[in-house]
Write a structure and sequence with these properties.
alpha/beta; Rossmann fold; seven-stranded parallel sheet; 10 helices; 50% helix; 14% strand
Length: 271
């Protein structure tokens, strides 16, 4: 049944941040379409229509957006949440492994943006909300490839926002810190492990596991995404949760030497 409600598309909505975001957008008055790589395994969510989508496929991205347009005739908000993690030292991560991760985290975002933009421009309004991370502006030893993918999303989104603003569209960033999801368990391990990095890598893995266990509830991030979707005058960047806010202040105001020492201390690196 047709409604006058705004329409939101949330990628990777079967669990974690994506699931909470889909539900929060329903509560905020949106018609919501969520995506998953395999909707046959998704637990239904009240008010959310699910579509199959693999963001690494041009054909799948085009098909998902076309289905939203056929069903609703419009699309107001795209939340690019689908992503994959990657652990391990930079030297332990093959180019092939890094390329696969970028295909989801970076090129997957670009595919979805390219599909929705013609519709958003035609209707003269729209919000593209890309999930970055505090690792979009902080370094993270033993997660260099993943941090690189989120740094890429930062540069892409800020540049995109300048291009589309004249057409009534905004491109925005949401930057969570550590969130209680399956991130660490679902992150790819290095495909070319080296003994020289094993001990320190295990230490950083433990630090990350503890940070995620004590991290923000995904609903905190979802609330921030709804703000980005609905604020009358949106900000380019939204930190999600108090830890992300503190991290941004640290990066902005701490002298380089102090900041460097803090990163090493947090990750239990010598010196």
């Amino acid at each position: 049944m047709a409604t006058n409600r705004p329409v939101a598309l949330v990628t990777g909505a079967s669990s974690g941040i994506g699931k909470e975001t889909a539900l929060a957008l329903v509560a905020a008055g949106f018609d919501v379409v969520g995506t998953s790589r395999d909707t046959s395994r998704v637990t239904p969510l009240d008010g959310v229509t699910f579509l199959d989508l693999d963001v690494v496929s041009d054909k799948s991205a085009a098909s998902a957006v076309q289905q939203v347009i056929e069903r609703f005739g419009r699309i107001h908000v795209l939340v690019n949440n689908a992503g994959v993690g990657s652990m391990g030292a930079a030297e332990e991560t093959s180019i092939a492994q890094a390329r696969d991760m970028f295909d989801t985290n970076v090129f997957g975002v670009m595919r979805m943006v390219n599909e929705v933009l013609p519709y958003m421009r035609a209707q003269g309004r729209g919000r593209i909300i890309n999930l970055s991370s505090v690792l979009g502006f902080l370094p993270q030893p033993y997660m260099a490839a993943y941090a690189a993918s989120k740094h890429a999303i930062e540069g892409y989104t800020e540049s995109l926002d300048h291009e589309v603003r004249d057409h009534g569209v905004r491109a925005l960033l949401v930057q969570p810190a550590y969130t209680r999801t399956g991130f660490e368990a679902n992150s790819a391990k290095p495909d070319t492990p080296l003994a020289v990095y094993a001990k320190q890598g295990q230490t950083v893995d433990r630090v990350m596991a503890e940070a995620i266990r004590d991290g923000d509830d995904p609903a905190v991030v979802a609330k921030t995404i709804v703000a980005a979707a609905t604020d009358a005058k949106p900000k380019l960047r939204y930190t999600a949760g108090p830890m992300a806010g503190r991290a941004r202040i640290l990066r902005r105001v701490a002298p380089a030497g102090v900041f460097d020492k803090q990163i090493r201390k947090m990750n239990k690196l010598a010196g």
